[in-house]
Amino acid sequence: MHEPGPTDLEVRIVIMGAGFGGIGAAVRLLQSGQEDFAVLERSDQLGGVWRDNRYPGCRCDVPSHLYSFSFAPNPRWRSTHAEREEVWQYLQDTATTFGVPTHIRFGHAVLEAGWDDRAGIWILRTNRGSLRCRYLISATGTLSEPMVPSIPGTETFDGTIMHSARWDPNHHFEGKRVAIVGTGASAMQIVPSIQPQVEHLTVFQRTPGWVVPHHPRFIPSWKHRLFEHLPATQRLLRGVLYLRQELAVSAFTKYDGIRTGLERRARRHLARQVADPWLRAQLTPEYQLGCKRVPPSDDFYPAISQSNVELVTEPIVRIEPDGMVTRDGHLHPVDTIVFATGFRVSDNPTARQVVGRESHRLSEALSGDLPSYLGTTLPWFPNFFMLNGPNTGTGHTSQLYMIESQLNYIIDALEHLDEWDAVGEVLEDVAKEHSEEMQRRSAKSVWGSGCASWYRNDRDANVVIWPNYTFVFRRRSRHFDPADYRIVPAGSVASPPTRPANERKD
Ligand code: NAP
After folding, report:
1. Is the CB of 400 under 6 A from ligand 1?
2. At a CB cut-off of 8 Å and minimum separation 6, what does 225 contact?
3. Where do the structural domains in the chain lie, given as residue ranges?
4. Which of 49, 148, 186, 245 most suits a substitution to test ligand 1, by most atoms within 8 Å of the C-beta?
5. 259 touches 288 (CB < 8 A)
């Protein structure tokens, strides 16, 4: 591993972040013959969300054989839905196998990254010195900045407060009175894990969500051997899983009948698992299934039905030294508060640090104020690429499929720009047209059906989800089309575009 030290060097390419996106980008660069790059990682370990989310019960609710890179199949997944440690280990092993760790500079937090239009380079200021590069790839992740609601009196609380993604592994829950705020995917995994240990668990629910049956299973060793000896069988399974997950897009964008069928299935799941009519009514969602991400769980409803668990639907108005007070004036006494309240996505503060031409900031793209193209490139940001950018999110399948699609595009773009020794910036019209298409499609889908979710910005526009089948994204991102870009020779950034004639693709 690279020893962190004072840095003042130049590399061709900088990747910010060593999660799935950053490691995937590094592998693809190495595979395309590029060695002159650095991955800047603010932490001292790689892994992104899989490093950060250490809460008990954390596991991947997307099938393991799909939630892995196509270039690094793992025949030995222990479970159909891997636990967090196994996913994290997979990412570390993949990085090692492909020789990525020597390129990672751990403990390097980017404080600012700015495009120098005169020199045609990116200049990065980090906590360990500055760095200049020709291309910048942002892989800082969508779910990297915890969202903790500001509740009056929080600072007066006498007990322990933590966010699900900043778990304190040394905190003992045994015999404690615990509050968990939120009932999203993280809370759904935490509640069943801590319920048996705690004296009392108060679950604060703002909006009931849809929950579908899960059935994670251990994978027997004969299947490991099969996948090892006949890799085609694993590829076949992956293909089947991919197609099965993709059916959800039909339900969310086209066929209401499939969606309402899924809603009936989810209601049956609730009815089977929750006997108490009051509790069942509180847990019944009122928005269209799919509008928010649909977590699968077999143990959330049984856990919440236990006698030491109380579901509270009254809004929290303040925190006092010994508990949380709801709007009805009731004090809920607790020793520990867990905020499973999600992440700052469209207002991710780290995106303010990336500054393109004319002082435009990356945060403007995440909030939907600037258009972006394929969630990967942005006008005013030359030689800049991002992973998991606007409208590249998927709630129904593996995000790695989208990341790999973006990487196809980025590698192709880098090859073109290198060949011409050029600087490329997507045309504003192209990005605008794309962003408008995203909104038009979203409006006709379940993501435009009116629920509040982290997919939407403060003007209610879907800035997260790709509102179409993921294979359409794969097709569109297969090739970099120079006709979509303002391309100028490197070193003369102000010169008029010298764009090779090329047909626009769809
Ligand atoms: P989330 O889905 O954003 O859920 C946050 C929860 O907190 C929601 O129930 C929300 O209620 C509630 N909340 C937020 N602010 C609140 C407030 N001020 N008062 C009361 N409740 C409040 O966050 P998450 O559960 O951490 O999941 C985030 C994403 O992480 C998921 O969508 C998924 O993409 C990913 N994830 C994946 C897995 C996996 O297995 N692959 C597991 C966990 C998480 P409202 O619904 O009313 O907003």
Report:
1. no
2. none
3. 13-145+344-489, 154-217+264-339
4. 186
5. yes
Instruction: Tell me the H-state helices in 63-149.
Output: 84-97
Query: Could you tell me which residues come within 8 angstroms of residue 247 by beta carbon, excluding any fewer than 6 positions away?
Result: 258
List, for residues 440-499, the tens digit of each pLDDT value: 999 999 999 989 999 999 999 999 999 999 999 999 999 999 999 999 998 765 444 444
Q: What is the four-CA torsion angle of 309, 314, 318, 320, rounded to 10 degrees? A: -30
Tokens of 329: 């004036």
Q: CB of 455 within 8 A of CB of 288?
A: no
For 154-217+264-339, CATH number out of 3.40.50.10490, 3.40.50.1970, 3.50.50.60, 1.10.10.10 equals 3.50.50.60
Positions of the chain with pLDDT under 70 = 1-9, 492-506
Angle 419-425-430 (CA atoms, 0-180°, nearest 5)?
Answer: 120
Verify whether ligand 1 is closer than 6 Å to residue 202 (CB atom). Answer: no
Secondary structure (3-state) at 383: coil
pTM for the whole thing?
0.94
Residues near 345 by beta carbon (within 8 Å), at least 6 away in sequence: 142, 143, 366, 454, 455, 463, 464
Instruction: Decide whether 13-145+344-489 matches 154-217+264-339 in CATH topology.
Output: yes
Ligand 1 centroid to residue 483 C-alpha, Å: 40
On whether the 13-145+344-489 domain is CATH 3.50.50.60, my answer is yes
